Each structure stands twice: as structure tokens, then as C-alpha cells.
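tool_call predict_complex ligand=flavin mononucleotide
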Amino acid sequence: MTGEQIVCPSAIPSKLTGVMPIPMTKKMINKVIKNYAIASKRLQKAGYDGVEVHAGHGYLLNQFFSELYNKRTDEYGGSLENRTRLAVEVLHSIRNKCGKDFIIGCRINCQDYIEGGLEIGDMAKIAKKLEDEGADLLNITAGIFDSPFYPVIPFMNQPRGVYSEYSKIIKRSASKIPICVVGRINTPEIAEEILQDNRADMVAMGRAVISDPYFPQKVQEGRRVEMVVCPACNACLNQILIEEKISCSINANLLGRYEDI
Ligand SMILES: Cc1cc2nc3c(=O)[nH]c(=O)nc-3n(C[C@H](O)[C@H](O)[C@H](O)COP(=O)(O)O)c2cc1C
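tool_result ok
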């Protein structure tokens, strides 16, 4: 998008863009580690209680985890431990700069949903490692941009709470810290079911608050029939992908243009 040189663990292009990246040198890796800490410190100074490090959706840290994109032969590739090293060093660097009272969460995939990509078994081990190395919270998502269907933002053909079966497995592995899960959690009933069933300690919602920004307030006040429930049609996503302003097929007032509706 910016025209800048793309860097990756190894010279493997994303199918989405086809652009050939260059493998990161140790110097580049060190700079990235340092920059995570600098960015986190900036947020701490601005008053935030914590940060969430994105290590899912096929972004850099997720690529380092994955054998499909990480073919390195140095200390950052070749084994699960080595492939997790960058994320661990990022965690340590933020912790050193922001201190023990700063919350550091990690957003990780439960599966990459691509042949040769990460599966739940590996992710449960990575989750444990992140817990051991100082993560305060894990937020479980799924999919990468190259996945054949689009699990990052699950469409209506996926069941509600689709990733909660996997967050349950991760919760058993990283058992000391809170585990949050996202993915088609768009009614209070499915949210409650996931919590009661111990599949996660917290739930996260994206589109539920696009279709109805008052969703949490309505849950609290028991105004169930008034809720405008997201059908997972992904009209919002389509707009973003064509670089247009977000819209919603069931919330005409999303951008506050029609206050009187
Ligand atoms: C329009 C739109 C934009 C999104 N942008 C991002 C993003 O920039 N970073 C990210 O990690 N997730 C992004 N997501 C994914 C959401 O964080 C969430 O994981 C996903 O929508 C699934 O949750 P849901 O079923 O509650 O919507 C986006 C989702 C939508 C619908």
C-alpha cells in the first residue's frame, strides 16, 4: 500500500499481493523488537493500561511462527521454539520498557486455515510459551490473508462462536492467564454459552458492535429484543477492502448520517 520494501522471515510472497519480500536481517529484527517497545511506551505515556501485540492474521509475528512462511536457518527458524523467539523477544522488550504493571496481551490464531500453516496443536504450545514469557492475556482469532476462505472475519456460513472450540484447547495449555476469543459472537446467548462452558474467560466482538453500537448496554439492561444482531454478511469488510468508508447492511446510521432513523 505504501510502496515501501516488504520484509518477512523468508522471501515468500503473499498470494494476496504477489509482492516478493526480502528476508529480515538480524539488524532489522532488532529494530522491530525495539520499535514495539517504543510504541508501547508511547501508549503508556498517553494513558493506556496496556497493549495488544498482533501475532495473528498472517502479520509479521504470525509469519515467524509458521513453517509455511519461515524457512530461516538461524535462531529464528527451524524449530517451534526458534519460530516463537521473535514474539518472545518482543514481549520481553515491551515488559522491560513499560514495567510489570503494564498489560501485554497477544492476539494469536488458533489455526491459520491454510495447508501447511499452523494448526491448533502448535498454537497451544506457542500460547503456553507466550504465557511463560510474560503475556498477561491471549486473544484468540484465526486465519491469515492467504487462507482459501476468509476465516479472519467468519462469514455467515460459519457457526456462532466458531473459534471457541479451539480457545478451549488453548485455555487448557495456557491455563494461568485469561483467554479471550473472537469470531461470530453476536448474541448474548452465545457469549454466555462460551463462558459457561469454560471455552474462554472473555469474549471479544467486532461486527456485533458495528451492527449495534449499543449492544453491550442493551445486554446490561436486558433489552434483548431491541438488539440489531449482526448477520455476518461482511458488507462492512467489503467496503474496507475497496478502501471505501465502512457501512452496514442493517445499521443505516452507522456513520451517524441519519440521526432521526
Ligand atoms: C470492517 C472490519 C475491519 C477489521 N479490521 C481489523 C484490523 O485492522 N485488525 C484486526 O486485527 N482485526 C480486524 N478485523 C477483525 C476483527 O477484529 C474480528 O477479529 C473479526 O471481525 C471477527 O470477529 P466478529 O465476528 O466479532 O466480527 C476487522 C473486522 C472488520 C469487520
